[in-house]
């Protein structure tokens, strides 16, 4: 892997704005942290936007500066892979409201000189997409060859042709949905309440002090359960106990699955901001693409000429296949060209981030099919 591929070209753009949010607030200026890979073609026709999930970031195919771990989608992006910097100009930005360099609760409010905290305006998925469009304008990208995303990234990918129907040629949506169910919202609310019940949350004004690490860790643990499948958990952990010389009943992590979840929670607090978690999960819960277009999902796609590819996984109970099928039906009703496949995987929702050769073949064939 070349140095450019390993580390990407990481930047932060301060855009003058204003960005008009769905809530009516004008946000200005707007900071967007992003990474690019490859070179924009002279005709600008090779740009692909990658949209990340809830806890993701712009470090899609380069080492993470805080954790040192490889990018979160190196299985999809890289030399000889479906999205190749030798062929494509790849852009991945940190979403509005997040905490890896883009404007969000942890960034500085220019009016006060202090972190925004809970004074940061409410944001939506469509606001994230509008911020991405501002970044692409800044980069000189008029039209995208494709927008690709999984989970919350898939929500953004769906919102792109609905919001900017003339700016995208192809859309890849993996393990996602056009709106949250009551169950999705319920799981997110458990996480939000865990954060806000942490005494150190302090109404969101914890910057410069102790962050609500315990609450955020519990939120991550609860969410992480939804990313997995029962079969995957059973295969990996079952009811196996931790190996100990002497064990007494108590509230230590007696079972291996308990230890795993606690590790997930503790490692998460080192790289994520609790307030950002509140804002982004709320944006996901508000997302309802049909409601944005008169209550009919097909209306969201009538103005675009983009091609669509949808991928679901048979063990994903967070965004099960029925959610993808409803999007496919809406696309058919709108007359949009769409391909759809349900893939088999034991890994649940997280399958799109793991080694999935069949998914790579589907995405590779779809993107090449548009040449």
TrEMBL record:
Record keywords: Acyltransferase, Amino-acid biosynthesis, Cytoplasm, Methionine biosynthesis, Transferase
Places the protein is found: Cytoplasm
EC code(s) of this entry: 2.3.1.31
InterPro entries: AB_hydrolase_1, AB_hydrolase_fold, HAT_MetX-like
Domain AB hydrolase-1: 46-355
Main location class: cytoplasm
Complex and partners: Homodimer.
Family membership: Belongs to the AB hydrolase superfamily. MetX family.
Protein name: Homoserine O-acetyltransferase
Organismal lineage: Bacteria, Pseudomonadati, Pseudomonadota, Alphaproteobacteria, Sphingomonadales
């Amino acid at each position: 892997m070349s140095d450019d591929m390993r580390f990407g070209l990481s930047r932060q753009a301060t855009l003058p704005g204003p960005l008009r949010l769905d809530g009516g607030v004008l946000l200005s200026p707007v900071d967007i942290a992003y990474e690019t890979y490859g070179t924009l073609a002279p005709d600008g026709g090779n740009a692909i936007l990658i949209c990340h999930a809830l806890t993701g970031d712009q470090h899609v195919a380069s080492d993470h500066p805080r954790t040192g771990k490889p990018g979160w989608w190196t299985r999809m992006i890289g030399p000889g892979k479906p999205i190749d910097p030798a062929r494509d100009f790849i852009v991945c930005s940190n979403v509005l409201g997040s905490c890896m360099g883009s404007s969000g609760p942890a960034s500085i409010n220019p009016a006060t000189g202090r972190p925004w905290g809970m004074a940061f305006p409410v944001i939506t998925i469509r606001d994230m997409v509008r911020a991405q469009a501002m970044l692409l304008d800044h980069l000189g990208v008029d039209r995208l060859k494709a927008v690709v995303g999984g989970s919350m990234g898939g929500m953004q990918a769906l919102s792109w042709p609905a919001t900017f129907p003339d700016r995208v040629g192809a859309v890849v949506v993996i393990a996602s949905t056009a709106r949250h169910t009551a169950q999705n919202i319920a799981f997110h609310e458990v996480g939000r309440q865990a954060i806000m019940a942490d005494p150190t949350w302090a109404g969101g004004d914890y910057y410069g002090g102790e962050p609500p690490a315990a609450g955020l860790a519990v939120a991550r643990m609860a969410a992480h359960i939804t990313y997995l499948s029962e079969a995957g958990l059973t295969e990996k952990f079952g009811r196996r106990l931790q190996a100990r010389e002497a064990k007494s009943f108590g509230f230590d992590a007696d079972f291996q699955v308990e230890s795993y979840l606690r590790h997930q929670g503790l490692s998460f607090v080192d790289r994520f901001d609790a307030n950002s978690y509140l804002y982004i999960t709320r944006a996901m819960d508000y997302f309802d693409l049909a409601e944005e277009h008169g209550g009919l999902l097909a209306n969201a796609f009538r103005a675009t000429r983009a091609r669509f590819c949808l991928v679901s996984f048979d063990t994903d109970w967070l965004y099960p296949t029925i959610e993808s099928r409803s999007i496919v039906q809406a696309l058919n009703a709108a007359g949009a060209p769409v391909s759809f496949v349900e893939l088999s995987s034991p890994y649940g929702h997280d399958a799109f981030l793991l080694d999935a050769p069949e998914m790579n073949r589907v995405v590779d064939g779809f993107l090449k099919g548009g040449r």
